[in-house]
Amino acid sequence: MNRLKGTAVSKIIGYGLAAILVITVLLLISNNFFYFLKVVEQQEVGIQFRSGRIRDVVGPGVYSDLGLFVRLERISTQAIPFQVEDKEIITKDKQRIGLIASGDIFRPGLDQRNLILDLWDQYRGIYTSDSLALQRVTDFAKQAMKVCVGDRTFDDNIIGASRDALRNCIDDELNEMVAPMGLSVN
Question: Using H for helix, E for strand and C for coil, what is the string for the chain?
Answer without folding.
Answer: CHHHHHHHHHHHHHHHHHHHHHHHHHHHHHCCCEEEEEEECCCEEEEEEECCEEEEEECCEEEEEECCCEEEEEEECCCEEEEEEEEEEECCCCCEEEEEEEEEEECCCHHHHHHHHHHHHHHHHHHHCHHHHHHHHHHHHHHHHHHHHHCCCHHHHHCCHHHHHHHHHHHHHHHHHHHHHCCEEC
